[in-house]
Amino acid sequence: MVSAVFHSSLDTRSAEAKAPRVSVAAARAPIVPAAEAAPHHPRYDWRGLALKVVPPLLGIALLIAIWGVLTRTSTTFPTPGATFTEAVKVFSDPFYRNGPNDQGIGWNILFSLYRVAIGFGLAAAVGIPLGFLIGRFEVIKHMTAPLISLLRPVSPLAWLPIGLLVFKAANPAAIWTIFICSIWPMIINTAVGVQRVPVDYLNVARVLNLSEWKVITRILFPAVLPYMLTGVRLSVGTAWLVIVAAEMLTGGVGIGFWVWDEWNNLNVKHILIAILVIGVVGLVLEWTLIAIAKRFSYDDA
Amino acid sequence: MSSFIEVQDVEMVFSTRKGRFHALREIDLKVERGEFVTLIGHSGCGKSTLLNLIAGLTRPTSGVLICDEREIASPGPERAVVFQNHSLLPWLTCFENVHLAVERVFAANEDREQLRERTQAALELVNMGHAAAKRPHEISGGMKQRVGIARALAMEPKVLLLDEPFGALDALTRARLQDELLKIVARSGSTTVMVTHDVDEAVLLSDRIVMMTNGPAATIGEILRVDLARPRDRVGLVEDSHYTHFRKAVLDFLYTRHGHVESAAA
User: Fold this and answer.
1) What's the average model confidence in pLDDT over B13-32?
2) Stretch A235-244: mean pLDDT, rounded?
3) What is the DSSP string of A4-50?
């Protein structure tokens, strides 16, 4: 009975939470490069810079303005000003500990990232080799194709009870959920990458009569790497989406749990701060992986 | 004494999704040691297919291919291929691309320094020593093709197979690379089979020109022996009556007797 109520309220909450999270993150994100770019390029084309900086700032300002107007008379929803004051307070002491259920936002983020790292790392360790096998061997491809297409669209939270059943603990169950949800993009992209290795490169390998090891290290791996990194990027994005939802259900320390805890405390300002933080962390993960992918991509010309 | 490369009654049928495609039939060809042979024909006549068969990249549906008294069962470094689109690995530098081949062939008998010297020497041979540290996307199409040739030559192959190596290049670059190829082949004395669709290129380079009929089920229509003295000079040959005679013979075969009919290939 309790769990039924819990689930239904979670579903509506998470649907509501998602929409503002995305828009806030997208709108706020350009603040960082814009603020940095201005002093770095004193002799920059000012018009171009203005075009890059002004519209994002306008977008953010517009959002905050609408928020402010809508909450002017509200008693339940905090105003932008109040949220900002609260955020300064939250971030002034991010690493305090007052018992297991009251820890600083820094700890919550780190715990979430730790779960993501473990679940995602395991998914990469299994998914990438599996992708190679699927791409290289037709039989394995046909064996796994129906399973993958069947299991991939399953909602992340549907996997959580299985994890709880098998591991009998919340933390491994959350990690398991991350694992199973972030493995698919890596399997699929790696397999596609292996299948798209140009025949010419493989012909070169055949003419040179390279050993299987050399074929893998010198031809297959570099050729597949850009595809693989795309898979990794998608996976990390998924993992970060899933962790918030999973932590809401499993509890413990983590940003998702923090959101849920503050909902129970009816501390809406903290929920808004959490949404912003989740967006920023997700964005940083995405940028990091794009930077890595750029480093390893090659111009095929 | 048999020939160096022998193609005996080879037939090639591809089974594609749309059904069986009869590419080649009744191919008989002998290539002597040190000979330069070009395969010429309209597109779709299976000349690249024949080259791939000699390379061992594909196996014939029926018939036998022999190289140096052994049946060709798989590709190998003794039959080096220069691919149409150069096929350099984009994540390796020019040096590493050539070194990969050198390593494969000579690592068993030579130390590191010798392998490096061989690689550098192969790049110098095609005048690409200066670009050893560059990656393929940093150099022009002609340069890439030269590195591709260097990679093939560095293996000291018994047979050099070239699949329209200069097809994608501009006319001036192509002429220069043809001249370089002539010199290199004259020096190394390697047996060479080259696919081309350029009549001038065929006459300038070849000892014999193998002219192929139109596909499907293409075969060798005629073989022309080009007994022009070597070394050949492209400028001098323009007014040479023998040269124009050979040129006309090939053009006559390609356009008068086997004019490309689109419907025949479709």
Assistant:
1) 87
2) 90
3) HHHHHHHHHHHHHHHHHHHHHHHHHTTHHHHHHHHHH-TTS-HHHHH
Chain B interface mutation, best of A206, A208, A299, highest count of B Cβ atoms under 10 Å: A208
Return all residues near A124 (Cβ < 8 A) that are at least 6 apart: A186, A232, A235
Asked if residue B216 has a cis previous peptide bond (ω within 30° of 0), the answer is yes
Q: Which two tokens stand for residue A211?
A: 């050993």
Distance CA A111, CA A259 (A): 14
Which chain A residue has the Cα nearest residue B76? A207
A212 to chain B, any CB pair closer than 8 A? The answer is no
Identify the burial level of B3 via C-beta atoms within 10 angstroms of its C-beta, where 0-12 means exposed, 13-18 middle and 19 or more buried.
middle
pLDDT tens, A76-132? 888 888 888 888 888 888 888 887 777 788 888 999 999 999 999 999 999 999 999
Q: Label residue B149 exposed, middle or buried (CB < 10 Å: 0-12, 13-18, 19+).
A: buried
Which amino acid would we find at residue A167? F
Q: Looking at per-residue confidence, does B205 or A18 come out higher?
A: B205
* Three-class secondary structure of residue B192 per DSSP: strand
Q: How far is the C-alpha of A138 from the C-alpha of A126, rounded, in Å?
A: 19
CATH architecture assigned to A91-296: Orthogonal Bundle (1.10)
Find out whether A204 and B87 touch, Cβ atoms under 8 Å: yes
Contact: A207, B77; criterion CB under 8 Å: yes
Cα dist from B139 to A172, A238, B90, B131, B144, whole Å: 52, 40, 11, 8, 7
Residue A80's φ and ψ, nearest 5 degrees, are -55, -40
Dig out the tokens for B180 from the structure: 């370089």
ipTM summary value: 0.81
pLDDT at A59 over 90: yes
B144 or B1, higher pLDDT: B144
